[in-house]
Amino acid sequence: MFHNVKRTLIMMKLILQDVLQINSLVPPYSSTFTKIAFPVPQPPGISDLPLFIYFDIDNRFTLAQQQWIRDAINGVLFQWFQHLTEKWNGGSNNGISQLANCTNLYATRNLRPTWYLGLPIDNGLAATNIAMEQFTRLIRDNGFGLAPQAKIFSNISFPANSSTIFALTTLAQSQVPLSFIVNPAQLDSSGLNIKFLTGSMFHAWLHRAGFYHPKKSSHFIIECPMCIMRGFQIKETITPDSFYIQFLD
To answer: pLDDT-derived band of residue 1, with 50, 70 and 90 as boundaries?
Structure first.
């Protein structure tokens, strides 16, 4: 129960950060934060990118847990880079990435982010392209200091395995802080590997890009990260979607 109260308080802080655009986000518990930086890969055809993105990470994470988080964020950056590189297609910018191709097979619902006012999004391919364009905006706003400072909070959910990485769905398109909550108990789980954790982190970024649930098959925010977790392989009946969805908040 105590963890649930703290979790609710953190969520309230995240909502305030979104609404008020504040940097001084004090956690509802005694802890300090350390700034960490991640080099931004430079995909072809994309200009005006920062050299780094930055996060304030909760010092209550162990060094091993911090490394998991670092690896997952680097994994998201790699997937973004790989998608844009494959889409660039040598300069024609008409390619279909492995991520978009896989997602297009399965994602048919909730293809539109909350802020989107353009033409209808007809399929998972178009949704993936829009999502990765929004990741570019998230990266720029973070790296150039246009968004509030991103915070990575530590909080054990109740039950302990009911959450991995939690992020709010934003209503905004710009100046969105890349803040989220990571469950350290899940980082210590023997059933976790880097593909699953990268998919979970990617899912959290999709929330910050404006995509939303429910946590069911066919919804874009579920199918896209599941493609990463499966290594872009087609679905197999021996491994149900629910196995992957357990890592998606």
So the answer is: very low
